[in-house]
TrEMBL record:
Pfam families: GspH (PF12019), N_methyl (PF07963). One of its GO terms (biological process) is protein secretion by the type II secretion system. Keywords: Cell inner membrane, Cell membrane, Membrane, Methylation, Transmembrane, Transmembrane helix. The keyword Ribosomal protein does not apply. Its main location: membrane. This is Type II secretion system protein H. The lineage of its organism: Bacteria, Pseudomonadati, Pseudomonadota, Gammaproteobacteria, Enterobacterales. InterPro entries: N_methyl_site (IPR012902), Pilin-like (IPR045584), T2SS_GspH (IPR022346), T2SS_protein-GspH (IPR002416), TypeII_GspH (IPR049875). SUPFAM superfamilies: Pili subunits. It is a single-pass membrane protein. It is found in: Cell inner membrane. Belongs to the GSP H family. The keyword Cell inner membrane applies.
Length: 187
C-alpha cells in the first residue's frame, strides 16, 4: 500500500512559495503615500518629545536651532548654546528638499508683547537686520525648553509644495504636543 501524505521537503517548498507570494503582495500595498511634510513633522514631533523628556529628567535647558536645511538640538553649557552630544538627538536633522519649515510663536500675547517692545525701542530696519545677523552668528536656538519655566508655545509648520500639504507641530502653554494638518497652505 502506497503511503499517503507529503514529504517535509514538499511542505517546506509550499511554505516558501506562499511566503514569496505574500511578500510581493505586501510590497504592492505598502506604497509610500504619505507626504514628505507629514513624515518630517512626525519625525520632529517624536524627537522633540524625547528631547522635552530629557530636559525634565536632566534638569537642563535645551533648545532647537532651526535653519534652512533642517534643525539641531542644543543645550546650554557654560553660558553658551552647544549641540547636544552623545545621543541620537545630537545629529543635525536635514528635512527633505521639497519640505520647507516655518516657525511661528504660538501665543498672540507673546507677539503683541514683542511688537510693543519693538515700538518702545523704535528700531529701524537696519537695526533689526543687524540684530538678526548677530543672532544668526550666535546660533541661538529659536525654540527653548526648560523644566523650571512654563512652556513657550510655538507652531512649526512643514510645507510640501509639490503635494500641496501642510502639517503643524504645536506646543501648547501646558506643554502638550500635537500634530495637525494645517488649514492654510504655504505663504
Amino acid at each position: 500500500m502506497p503511503e499517503r501524505g507529503f514529504t517535509l521537503l514538499e511542505i517546506m517548498l509550499v511554505i516558501f512559495l506562499i511566503g514569496l507570494a505574500s511578500a510581493g503582495v505586501v510590497q504592492t500595498f505598502a506604497t509610500d503615500s504619505e507626504s514628505p511634510a507629514k513624515k518630517a513633522a512626525q519625525d520632529f514631533l517624536t524627537r522633540f518629545a524625547q528631547f522635552k523628556d530629557r530636559a525634565v529628567i536632566e534638569g537642563k535647558t535645551l533648545g532647537v536651532l532651526i535653519d534652512a536645511p533642517g534643525y539641531q538640538f542644543m543645550q546650554r553649557r557654560q553660558g553658551q548654546w552647544l549641540p547636544v552630544s552623545s545621543t541620537r538627538l545630537s545629529a543635525q536633522v536635514t528635512v527633505p528638499k521639497q519640505v520647507q519649515m516655518l516657525l511661528q510663536p504660538g501665543s498672540d500675547i507673546w507677539q503683541k508683547e514683542y511688537a510693543l517692545e519693538l515700538q518702545r525701542r523704535r528700531l529701524t530696519l537696519h537695526d533689526i537686520e543687524l540684530e538678526l545677523q548677530k543672532e544668526a552668528k550666535k546660533k541661538t536656538p529659536q525654540i527653548r525648553f526648560s523644566p523650571f519655566e512654563p512652556a513657550t508655545p510655538f507652531t512649526l509648520r512643514f510645507y510640501s509644495a509639490a503635494q500641496n500639504a501642510c502639517w503643524a507641530v504645536k506646543l501648547a502653554h501646558d506643554g502638550a504636543l500635537s500634530l495637525n494638518q494645517c488649514d492654510e497652505r504655504m505663504p
